[in-house]
UniProtKB/TrEMBL annotation:
Sequence ranges assigned to domain Endonuclease/exonuclease/phosphatase in this UniProt record: 7-231
Name of the molecule in the record: Endonuclease/exonuclease/phosphatase domain-containing protein
Highest taxon listed in the record's lineage: Bacteria
InterPro entries given in the database record: Endo/exonu/phosph_ase_sf (IPR036691), Endo/exonuclease/phosphatase (IPR005135), GPI-anchor_lipid_remodeler (IPR051916)
Pfam families for this protein: Exo_endo_phos
Amino acid sequence: MSLRVLTLNLRQDLDRWTERLPLVVEALAGAAANVVALQEVALPISQDRLVATMLNDAGLPYAVHTAPKWGDQNAEAVSLLTLAPARDHAVIALPGAGGRVAQRVVVATAGGDVAVVNTHLHHEPYDDESVRLPQAEAILAWLEDDGLLDRCVVVGDLNASPGSPTVRTLQGRLTSLLPDGTPTFPTPLAAGDFSPVQIDHVMVASGLAGSARLVADRGHPDDASLWPSDHLGVCADIQ
């Protein structure tokens, strides 16, 4: 079995989106992942379907599975794009603020079915894990209750770094494929004085193995401030 999964926060349609779009498509097409997990998807422009249409034109016919936030946050979504045969798209509302959700599909591989989960945990409060930790615990419980925790991949923007209670809790049941301490935010697209942090993750069940690398990690050759997103993407090959 070999399954390639990629996660990327799109930064909605902000910060020169129309100029960023070709860079996003180039990065995703270059990886040709079986499953692409997107966060901060702008629903008013059907951002995930726009990206998928351009990937289809490049010979990569992705199916689109959109999961809007709940409550008054529903102009934004997370989304899974799938090349591999996928079924059973399911979504849960995560507890706490921010209207956050987790979504999953079950992907058929030569080695058996694998559940791929995509999420974007809340960024507030910045200084503690009082919202993010219960959200992570809800995802683990969801997978365990449905008998999928032993055959799962959990990816996304967790807004939590290695060593935080949120990441430690997930790593109690799952294995991170991107080495801890590999910064995924910010890129030169981000405005503000940010310290480099690793908040984008790919984690797998103990029965799975693999390696991960950064993608969407190059800016425009003629504009040092124009990057695909304010986040780097993470791409993992899973066996």
